[in-house]
Amino acid sequence: MLHNSSKEFMFVLHGLNDTRTNKHIYFAFGLVFYVVTLFVNLTLVITIILDKTLHEPMYLFICNLFVNGICGASSFYPKILADLLSDTNVISYAACLAQIYMIYCYIFCEFTCLTVMAFDRYVAICNPLEYHYIMTHQKVVNLLVFIWLFSVLEISVATALTVQLPLCGNGIDKLYCFNWDVIKLSCIDVTVQHVYGYIVIFCHAFQAAFIIFSYYRIIRASLKSKTEKVKFMQTCLPHLITFINFTISLLIDVLCARYGRGPELQAMRNILGMEFLVVPPLLNPIIYGLKMTLIRRQLVKMYSQKLKVVQHS
């Protein structure tokens, strides 16, 4: 039995075993992806914060999505980039728990934020006359606080349950620390952790069902008029693409973590395990920035003005 609290306790990450020959190429690509992800998300966050015309519920929720994307990318890239330059891929017990906390907080926050955004679009399209009465400034603030508090509470309970487990191993077949991979190393029964895991899965399955139902109603309402159809294409389609991409990639990764074993599947597990951490934070700002007309216009306007100031000075 390994002692969790020991300062010398280290996990060994086996996910990079098959990438040694090309690690400098992977590092270069990873660094570029990380810098671009931070740049596009920060650019749009700053644009939404500075432009008062974008201080509407929909854009504030989108801004929250970008902030969460920065958190998700930052929970993954720094460690993987450091590992690509190192000969030993190890992580301390405390750092592993911190990475688990950040990654799961990103996952839960993304899902809850997408649920809130579905509710916002449902009210806007299906009950447009009541929208400003329902989505008040105070309601938006409460929803944003709820997104983060609910996500933090979920992962705090999960982390507390994981910390209690004595471990009989330290090998993780992944590029980063994931809660299920640590739980599998436990020396004792993990029924409580399993039950809590199913509760969390059920909770987010309910959120997914709510999103699907909301979009069923939204699509029905959008087909009734050309104006609502245009609104759907501009404001709802990016959200729907984000939801489908994130849900499918996360579901596949969870299934691979639980049932995909064997060294021959390591490369596939690496790709699937990175997808929901790499693609959504990079894809979301591109989709919303290009598809949503107001964000695109304000972004161009703001930076055109900045360019003129620089040129005149």
Would you give an account of this structure?
The protein is mainly α and 313 residues long. The protein has 10 helices and 3 strands. The protein has a 3-stranded mixed sheet with strand order 2-1-3. Helix 2 runs antiparallel to helix 3 (93-126) and helix 3 runs parallel beside helix 7 (191-222). The protein starts with 9 loop residues before the first strand and ends with a helix. The mean pLDDT is 84.
Number-wise, the strands total 3
Q: Helix coverage percent of residues?
A: over 70%
Q: Number of helical segments?
A: 10
Main structural class? mainly alpha
Please outline what is shown here.
With 313 residues, this protein is mainly α. It has helices at 23-50, 57-84, 93-126, 131-134, 137-163, 179-183, 191-222, 226-259, 266-291, 293-312, and strands spanning 10-13, 90-92, 171-172. The protein is 76% helix and 3% strand.
Q: What attributes does this structure have?
A:
three-stranded mixed sheet; 76% helix; mainly alpha; single chain; 313 residues
